[in-house]
Amino acid sequence: MGPTSFLRSRLDTKSPEYVQNLAAMEALWAEVDQLMASVPSIGGQRYVDRHRQRGKLLVRERVEAILDPGSPFLELSPLAAWGTTDPVGAGVVTGIGMVEGVLCGITGSDMTYKGGSANPSTLTKTLRFYDIVRANRLPVIVLNEAAGADLPRQADIFVPGGAQFRYLTELSKAGIPSITVGFGPATAGGAYIPGMSDYTVFVEGRAMTYLGGPPLVKMAIDEVVDEETLGGAEMHARVSGLADYLAVDERDGLRRAREVINHLGWKRPGPGLARASQAPRYDPSELIGCASADVRVPFDVREVLARLLDQSAFEEFKELYGDKLVCGWGSVHGFDVGIIANNGILFSEEAAKGAQFIQLCNRSNTPIIFVHNITGFMVGSKAERGGIIRNGSKLINAVSNSEVPHLNLLVGASYGAGNYGMSGRAYDPRFAFSWPNHRIAVMGPKQLAGVMDIIARASAERRGIEVTPELEELLVAQTSQLEQQVEHESTALYATGRMWDDGIIHPNDSRTVLGIALAAVHSNTIAGAESYGVWRH
Q1: What is the pLDDT along the chain (537 residues), one digit of tens a residue?
Q2: What is the DSSP string of 372-392?
Q3: Dihedral (CA of 25, 76, 518, 413) sign
Q4: Residue 345 region, left (φ>0) first, then alpha (ψ -120 to 50), else beta?
Q5: With contact defined as beta carbons under 8 Å apart, do 126 and 190 qualify?
Q6: Measuring CA to CA, which residue among 167, 178, 241, 248 is closest to residue 207?
Q7: Widest CA span in the chain
Q8: Please, which residues have CB within 8 angstroms of residue 46's CB and are 6 or more apart in sequence?
Q9: Torsion, CA 17, CA 314, CA 355, CA 503, rounded to 10
Q10: What is the distance between the alpha carbons of residues 391 and 347, in angstroms, rounded to a whole number?
Q11: CA-CA distances (angstroms) from residue 281 to 228, 259, 304?
Q12: Of 305, 407, 316, which Cα lies nearest the Cα of 366?
């Protein structure tokens, strides 16, 4: 039957407060949107033009061509490497989409940036992609055209880079199929991607796969050989046997990959939809104004839930106890979920309530969505006497040992151990998506800078150093500088650039994104934990 209680929204979308907050949120999203728009041409228009002149599709065009017509593509970590020396997007596309009615993981290199060569961020993003497809049992399609490692940075890539080949073989052992479509060169280590895939499609006259190209062969064994003879598509189809299918052009290669997916007869072992998807009673387009653009301003997370959940139906658990943590059951696009959402700081009661709710979700094999807006666990003598460490540890124990899928939606702050108690990235959630107002750090910038200022002054006092006007000025300057640094390092863009999440999403797209993520989760079995670590009662 599902929940029969319905959330009631008290949000006044015509109020000055809402309108002002909406404008601030839209400004935050505009910055993200502008960055995302730049990613497809990150290699520069010159190289985009060169790619097209060669009759080649761009990587996102290849993705679009292989997807079922009209179906969405959930791109993962589109702004990976933002704020680093690597290109925004890390020079690779990863994501989830429907091919022949089968939800698949899809990845492909962007050949317009350094010939598709891999940098350290490429590797981090790629390994996260393989984590996702393995955990959710998604067939993998690799749109392969890459120049191997960015050689001047090989020291940061070579040793950990071998993991992607291990992943492919482990996927195969687990019965998760992988299909590589070769559109161009696959050199050195990159040659092992088709070699370790279950199926390979090579585009005639384009795919070139070899451990060492003509220059290396000349240097190593003094053999002079052209690329086609050494590792061309037709040679691999007729002689070496590396190519399973020979395509006449790029679109034919994509068609053949779709045929492979079609013949798999792929079955999803998850329980699937529990009920028909029904729209919320409140408009999801209002989500962008629900959360505070300034995470220091509180808001009721139920307003978010009312626009996420099917029919806005929510069976709230322990509503009157530990009310700063909102727990309960609902559904998103027909998938049953447990919800753990923050309405402020975590006290002992909230921690104990959350631990019990996680156990219940595991008992009923129900995935959990954690909706973050948390400043951390309560501090102070009253909290310590009330068992905040004991109960906080209980919550983290439950999160750590829970075996149902966890999904994170970060709609505000995620500070301190509160991030851990809400199944933050260190606790291996299946997916984590943030809103543009999201902030993440060990604590708020002002609090952290203030703590360091207090420590510095106490240290000076212990050493008998007088706080002169000059020293006072220095301490104030240091505090201000630290606050600015932490403010920068806690932003949503900084976090997504370092791949602490799987992407910043437009708040209004949250239901769609969660629906796709839940569909992926149900591509694998869902079974809860039967035991936990020791905790104090």
Answers
A1: 455 799 999 999 999 999 999 999 999 999 999 999 888 766 667 767 777 778 788 899 999 999 999 999 999 999 999 999 998 999 999 999 999 999 999 999 888 777 667 788 999 999 999 999 999 999 999 999 876 666 556 666 777 677 888 999 999 999 999 999 999 888 777 788 999 999 999 999 999 988 877 777 788 888 888 888 888 999 999 999 999 999 999 999 999 999 999 999 999 999 989 999 999 999 999 999 999 999 999 999 999 999 999 999 999 999 999 999 999 999 999 999 999 999 989 999 999 999 999 999 999 999 999 999 998 888 889 988 888 889 889 999 999 999 999 999 999 999 988 999 999 999 999 999 999 999 998 766 677 667 777 777 777 778 888 777 777 777 777 777 777 887 888 899 999 999 999 999 999 999 999 999 999 999 999 999 998 888 887
A2: EEE--B--SHHHHHTTHHHHH
A3: negative
A4: beta
A5: no
A6: 248
A7: 83
A8: none
A9: -60
A10: 9
A11: 61, 41, 12
A12: 407
Q: Helix, strand or coil for residue 491?
A: strand
Q: How far apart are CA 31 and CA 504, in angstroms?
A: 11
Is residue 335 within 8 Å of residue 522, measured between CB atoms? Answer: yes
Tokens of 184: 């161009």
| Contact yes or no for 122/130 (Cβ under 8 A) | no
Give the chain's end-to-end CA distance (angstroms, integer). 34
Report the distance separating Cα 295 and Cα 308, nearest Å. 20
Helix (H) or strand (E) holding 157: none
Contact present, 150 and 157 (Cβ < 8 Å): yes
CA distances for 495 relative to 31, 263, 486, angstroms: 15, 40, 12
Three-state DSSP at 235 gives: helix
Assign 153 to helix, strand or coil. helix
**121-124 contacts: CB < 8 A, separation 24 or more?**
121/80, 121/81, 121/84, 121/86, 121/87, 121/90, 121/91, 121/499, 122/86, 122/90, 122/91, 122/92, 123/157, 123/160, 123/161, 123/164, 124/80, 124/90, 124/499
Beta-carbon-side half-sphere exposure of residue 112 (alpha carbons within 13 Å): 26
User: 108 has which bridge partners?
Assistant: 93, 143
How many Å apart are CA 402 and CA 356, to the nearest integer?
Answer: 11
The amino acid present at 66, given as its one-letter code, is: I
